[in-house]
Every structure is written in structure tokens, then in C-alpha cells.
Amino acid sequence: MHQILVYSDSLSWGIIPTTRQRLPFDQRWPGVMENRLLSSGKRVRIIEDCLNGRRTVWDDPYKPGRNGLVGLAQRIEIHSPLALVVLMLGTNDFQSMHEHNAWHSSQGIAALICAIRGAPIEPNMPVPPVLVVAPPPICTPKGPIAPKFAGGEHKCVGLAAAYEKVCQEIDCHFFDSSTVVTSSVVDGVHLDAEQHVVLGKALATVAATLLHV
Length: 213
Hints:
Blueprint (H helix, E strand, L loop, with lengths): L1 E7 L1 H4 L15 H11 L4 E7 L21 H8 L4 E5 L13 H16 L12 E5 L17 H4 L3 H11 L3 E4 L16 H19 L2
Parallel strand pairs: 1-2, 1-3, 3-4, 4-5
């Protein structure tokens, strides 16, 4: 059995736009990916570590525990051995209380990759490969979350290119989710249910090439 850790935020937690409800496992993209891999004969298990509001490396001034760097190395230690870690973060870096741009988030992703690679795992356990997934660009935020993400559609410009550049520099796998999905037509930030299905299938194809199983 090969374990895949998905380390992400509400886009992977499966929040239903404009609500505080959650899609069932089989309908959110990590579940779609697991089922797709299992049906193809891969013996895998997806471990979801997806926290609403999680940033790459910054704190939320209103909610504790949203800094993705804090405790990441220990999560790798807890869940090892891991065959793959999927990082899909960045959207919350552009909340209205932050002045970050795409370059800042790319440096945050680089710090997370380094933390994963340097985690204190047990001897002889593999250092897992990392797949960075750039989230789709924020569209015009709508509904209850509009004040929280005001201006995010401008601050996030160039995120995928910045992530890809960092991944090339430090030899890390990369996937641009905007090649297959867009942000929700309902709230402009999250993923609609049909986008989860599309992304899960696409990432199953990518993961299958990295698992060597």
C-alpha cells in the first residue's frame, strides 16, 4: 500500500461554495484521485490534511494554526512512509489582510518543499517526492467570502508561473491546475463539484507516473 499525503486548504477540503458544508470524500478531488488510482490497479491510500484558510507560510491574524509551515515536518514524520506528497496551497496567501504577490507565495511553497525534504523521518524510510499543484487563479470574489478575498484576483496574477519556476530550480514536480479547472462560478475562489471531478482525474494521471507501482 502506497500512501499519498494531500496537504492543502479548503479547495481540497471540499467546501461547497457560499456554504460551510463539505462534499463527500468520493466527490472531492482527493477522493476522486484515490478511486481513479484504485480502479487502475494501484494500491494507494490518500491521507487528507486539508485545513480551511491554510496559508503557505503565514499566520491568519484571526484564526490560529493556519501557517502551513508550522508542524509540517512532524506531519511527514507521522504519516511516513509516504510515496508522494501533494502540495496545493497559495489561495489564502491573497486574502485581503495580506499584501502578498505570486513571488511571495512561490517562496512559501519552496519553504514547504524544504521542510518535507528535511523532515525527521525514521532511518531507511524514503524521502517522498513532492508534487506542487498551483491552484486556479481567483476570479472576482462573490458572496460571503467577498470581503475576505477582496483584491485577490489581482494579487494572485502569475502564481502558476512563479510556482513552476521555483519547482524547476529545486527539482520538484509541478502541475498547473488552471490547465484543467477554473475557480468556482459561484464564489470565485473555491472549486465547484464538477471541477473536483476533473481535477481528481487529472491528478490521478500525474500521480500514477510518480508512484512507480
